[in-house]
Amino acid sequence: YGDYNQRIDYVFKVVLIGDSAVGKSQLLARFARNEFSVDSKATIGVEFQTKTLVIDNKTVKSQIWDTAGQERYRAVTSAYYRGAVGAMLVYDMTKRQSFDNMARWLEELRGHGDQNLVIMLVGNKCDLGSLRAVPTEDAQEFAQRENLFFMETSALESTNVETAFFTVLTEIYRIIS
Ligand code: GDP
Ligand code: MG
To answer: Could you confirm whether the keyword Membrane appears in this record (predicted)?
Structure first.
């Protein structure tokens, strides 16, 4: 940690996908830098951020890709998915449509991605509980049917963000090691 010459045992590419404004960029900012900005603009330019962590005494560098504002269906290019071993499928739990679109995102992801892709369904903005439009059970059912991990998060309040990424990275590690 903090050593620029540290040995990296693994590099895992994980992609963030889901509708615009569900909180993908803020989830990434929270995970990679422990930051949140209230007035986040549509993502500009940055392709990915990295965070290095230790799993089972191995140094794992996670490379988390953000969609840079191309969140329309079929607008995300295959280069984005290439080489990904994990994915965070993000909806906004206060926006039913963003959850209903998960099936299309998943189809697109599975069309491009690796067979063994580890996928986490993420219901973000759980701090806005009174505005909830997606019951936990609906998401659980979808996740179970599609064989996805599932977690409700808040990038704002830092709820479950690390756990969500860590769960995916640990599962990837478990599969490839
Ligand atoms: P993206 O388009 O999916 O990258 O979404 P952003 O990360 O840019 O977030 C869209 C909006 O939702 C911004 O105004 C964020 O401040 C807000 N937002 C993101 N995550 C949360 C969260 O966990 N809780 C709340 N209340 N707002 C959030
Ligand atoms: Mg964004």
So the answer is: yes
